[in-house]
Amino acid sequence: MCKVTTSSLAAHPFLHGMPLEQLDALAEAVSEVRFPARSRLFEDGGHAGRFWLIRSGQVALDLQVPGQGPMVIETLGTGELLGWSWLFAPYRWAFGAVVLRPVEAFEFDASAVRALCASDPALGYELIRRVARLLAHRLQATRVRLIAGSAPSAALF
After folding, report:
1. Axis-axis angle for helices 110-119, 121-149 (nearest 10)
2. Which of 12, 82, 86, 94 could hold 52 in an S-S bridge, CB 3.0 to 4.6 Å?
3. Pick the CATH number of 2-148 from 1.10.10.10, 3.30.413.10, 2.60.40.10, 2.60.120.10
4. pTM value?
5. 87-111 pLDDT, tens per residue?
């Protein structure tokens, strides 16, 4: 793991445009990591103690379906945030994640980031705003996939 500079954080799409003093604070809670293909990053229900900003590579989010095994529900890649369960108690992963193509990422210590957010409400608001925007986008994309997957036989009105 390597120390991360404020300028390298500023270049990531998720953090782009964030004030430098907030990036300086986040730089204290992050390191650079690499994961080979087929690495399991976390399991549904496990403790969410970290989150990542993907710099390169690809990760599949999966969910265990009874009687069927793991089902991929979304694929994340370069420029994306991996993990939001670290924000919400009881800090348990809502899905699992496995590396599809080797990943380089910024890995954040979730408890350290929550402490930073508690001590700097402006930073906390900025992160929550960015995560909320991302979750809204992913929810809309899921809705579109669900609608596309069901062919209605007739219009309701």
Report:
1. 120
2. 82
3. 2.60.120.10
4. 0.88
5. 999 999 999 999 999 999 999 999 9
